[in-house]
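for the record, two folds in this file. i put them one after another cuz i was lazy. first one right below, seq on top, structure tokens after. the second one comes after a little note so u can tell where it starts
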Amino acid sequence: MEELKKFITVIIIGMLFLETSSLKISAADVVGTNSTVTANTYTQDNNSLASFVKVTNTANVSNQNVNKFISQAQSVIKENRKTSQPSEFSQMLVANKEIYDYFYIDEDNKDLYFYEDSSNSNPIAKIVDLNTRSSIDTSVKSSSNSMYTQNLASLAPISGGMGARATVPSGNLLEARIHTDGNIKQLNLNKGTSYTYVGFTGSTEADAGLQYSSLNGQSNGYQVWKPYLKLGSSDPWSTNTMLNGYDAVQFQNGYIPGEEVQVSFWKNYVHDNVSTTRLKLQGLAKCANSTCSNASPTKLAVIMEKNGTGTSNIAAYKILATIADTDIKASGQVNSSVTNITVDGAPKTPTQAAKSTNSSMSISSNSITFNIK
């Protein structure tokens, strides 16, 4: 009997050894157009042998760059988990569930990298070539954003768009809470793309916040508020290719209309010896993963940045609600508010800057309410 126990023990140890050895695969051996990479290859925090990073590399970037990005994404997410402070707002979100989505564009403006860490599924990484991929979400269009270049004192109708804008003094970090429009029926009827967001003005224009993905006869959208970041007028972030590239990795998920979304926007965020313009959004998403295969409302933190875009010189921060389009005359209605506005931690009272004829905005302390029509 004792010998039988020893024999069984030896068999079990041998099986464990073989299983552990099979997981020690180098990234160079497994990273391809579609591959699965063991989590311990990239030293994930959970160190669970059952966890995997599924890599989809349609841009065919090098194994070295894939490895570097995954390490960077995990570092960024780990950092944000450490710095996240409990608050009344975060406690309102779904407890014990969260998704982290990290978007990054390389310094050559060529490839969009995406990493998703979800408590409900294994992590994924996707790399998309911004120069070659085709449209995924036809509801997403590149806005002319003509109101941003108008004279700040001008209250004339805005060609190609409608909306209102306020400004606050510059600093390094703008924080606010966006109360999104929850009138899905009206949002789907709007002609043009609906936005509520912040940004900065100066030698470079930046827009950072939310755009609505509408569902109607012309657009096959998902009826959610999706993250939006535009840097300059000719950068990939601002083009139709970039927005479609975003949908190629983000698919159906987004923030639920009518919910609050916390926005943090840095003009110059330095990490790993790289200076970036960084957007971070936190709120309640429609699904528990990017494909919505798990349609359970879940807390979603989105971090978006582009290598080398950090700037030290801006004229002011801006706060806007708009409906805009390059092909048709925009029309419709957006009702949203932006509250708890701070710059580098200090409350700031917005100043009215520009609006279209029938639109209005109401300012109270460090909050602003928009009625765009």
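(here's the note) second protein begins now
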Amino acid sequence: MSAMLYQPRLLIPSLGIIFSLHSPVLTAEPWQFEAGAGVISQQQVWKKMPTVTSAVPYFSASKGPWRIGIDGGNLISYSFYQDEAFRLYAGVGIRDNGYDADTSLSSDLSDDPVFSGYQAPNTEITSAVGFSWHWISLQLAQQLNDVRTAQVVDLAIELPLYQHNSGLRLMANIAASWMNEDYTQRIYGVAPGNQNLSVNRPVFQTEAEVNYSLNLRVQYPLSTQTMLLGSTGVTQLADNLQKSPLVGEEQSLDAMLLVVYRF
């Protein structure tokens, strides 16, 4: 494998060392927690995949530069520098975006014969570095487990659309996700050992591609400590990935509603 693909493995921990030595010390803060539950509904791009609706728990915790809980795909993240306008961080998390994801809370699967005997990709362990500045954010996340080095770069802009004195806020998030060939092949491709011509699953080789997404988010305070959070979004699959024998839809759709208690 080329040296270029291995560079992020060295880059991510190196950045952590550099900025932890040179950034200002963040003010010590007490632990802050959020816990709640809600429902999520997803229509994925796989052939004949039913819409999946699941109840989901929610939890996050933060103290100073540390964050625990889902945060841009990271389960644990550390901020090397953070103020009101800018944040520079690194994190470790999981990524599981293939068919028949191990981390899915639903057992509903496609009944299309193309998935008969299909070997779904394993859950990825990832490391990430990123920053946010005002409305703009950028993150590079790379797979750490298995042989491949699947990489995804997410660039997003979050625009405030409406805010009311009651605390009601409406935001739009526009994002582009660049995925290297290792990632697209892992999720959408069909390797020679995974082909089955009898169910119309030939070998399918991918390249690096870009997906685009649009999300609308709303939050409304029910009390001083309780918040109602909602979102709905659409992701447009790259044209070449739509040709995969596994794919039956041009877009994926999702919606979520959560009630969160802060303490």
